[in-house]
Design brief:
Distance between the termini: 69 Å
Radius of gyration: 25 Å
CATH superfamily of the domain at 38-138: Jelly Rolls
CATH class of the domain at 38-138: Mainly Beta
Order of helices and strands: HEEEEEEEEEE
Strand order of the largest sheet: 1-2-3-10-5-8
Structural class: alpha+beta
Shape: globular
Number of helices: 1
CATH topology of the domain at 38-138: Jelly Rolls
Strand content: 25-35%
Helix content: 10-25%
């Protein structure tokens, strides 16, 4: 009989705790999203190469995971290089001639996508005639290295 009472108290306590937790969760305001109009972007000089700019959307490219818009003047050549972490890019404006080491360049226009695994050597050129704007994201800090990947 005593064990039946103990079980009843435990079940009742668990039910009450669950009700309180659900009630508190219902009172938690929903998370707010982020909205940034193009006219509100804060473009800053990109320290990686002269003439380029970036608008950081989240994170900090110097410290860890990030999402950033990058703008490069038409005619800019990014020589063969690599990054430590995987980097993903979506072209928004302009034409980027992109190639992985040992492969011919492919012209990428708006809405084109590239995933660059960490250590994969690649190069890119923003074709003359228009600036290139692209979205770039990574789960780690940005780096741009030349020479052999390690």
């Amino acid at each position: 009989m005593r064990s039946v009472c103990i079980v009843a108290v435990v079940v009742g306590t668990a039910f009450a705790a669950g009700t309180v937790i659900r009630g508190q969760a219902a009172k938690t305001p929903p998370a707010k999203g982020t909205i940034v109009a193009a006219s509100d972007l804060k473009w800053i000089d990109n320290p990686s190469f002269k003439g380029a700019q970036q608008a950081i959307l989240w994170g900090d490219p110097a410290k860890g995971a990030y999402g950033v818009l990058k703008k490069v003047p038409g005619g800019t050549v990014l020589p063969m290089h690599w990054h430590t972490a995987t980097t993903r890019v979506v072209d928004i404006a302009g034409t980027i001639a992109f190639n992985f080491e040992g492969s011919p360049a492919k012209d990428l226009g708006p809405q084109s996508y590239v995933s660059v695994p960490g250590g994969a050597k690649h190069g890119a050129t923003c074709k003359a005639g228009a600036d290139c704007v692209y979205f770039e994201t990574s789960t780690a800090a940005y780096d741009m290295k030349t020479g052999d990947a390690k």
